[in-house]
Amino acid sequence: MTKTIIEVNDLSVNINGKAILKDIQFKAEKGQVLTLLGPSGAGKSTLIRTLNGLQNLSSGEILFYDDIKKGDLAQHSGMVFQHFNLFKNLTAIENVASPAWLSGELTKKEALTKAHVLLKQLNVDQQAQQYPASLSGGQKQRVGIARALMTNAPILLLDEPTSALDPESIQEVLLAIADIIKATDKTVILVTHELRFAKQISDKIIFMYDGQIIANEPTHEFFSTQSNQHIQNFLQSENTENIHYA
Ligand SMILES: Nc1ncnc2c1ncn2[C@@H]1O[C@H](COP(=O)(O)OP(=O)(O)OP(=O)(O)O)[C@@H](O)[C@H]1O
Asked: What is the pLDDT of residue 70?
């Protein structure tokens, strides 16, 4: 049975008096993968940052439901950022482990053990003792993903996780994300410009244009028939390179 875990109602965000998000409304079910698509400036990053509590909302509500916890979605999500956001003065493993031990959620020993398991899962355990400056872009982002998974949060938010990477690292990180999605029952909300990847891994596509949601459809429907001109233009202009993630 499907179970709603996120509900966003009438959400609006104004920045410096400008309406950036307008009347955003959608739901996500437990375990679903939702991808936010849309042209540059449509508001995708602002929406994901608002979900994670990094941007204040101007009106509306974001509701989080779980069997045991209710309340603030930001408390129950891990986030992967476009530009990694790793601490330069901490090693890879300390970047992953430190939020859990500093918050008192785990002891330092427990946090390091768990972080090592995650780094291994993402195939960056060999780099555990290296500092971010000596890691490739793809390695940095896999460390960033490990950090987002550290919390056991039921929601994973990914904001253009490959947009700062070279083509080889893009492939490597998309494969890592696909593996994580297969291995977990987390609800995933992803912003990406990698259309072929979105098509392969998403249950639903939310298409944004000028701060609004103009389509919210199961993936196969979104990519099969599109009468909306904005969506047609977008699909024609984006990267549809032939990459396989089986
Ligand atoms: N802090 C800010 N101050 C002023 N304007 C902002 C701010 N953050 C975002 N905006 C504006 O909000 C709009 C949406 O930006 P956002 O980054 O959310 O778009 P996007 O769909 O993620 O674009 P892209 O695909 O290029 O990352 C843009 O017009 C942007 O200039």
From this structure: 57
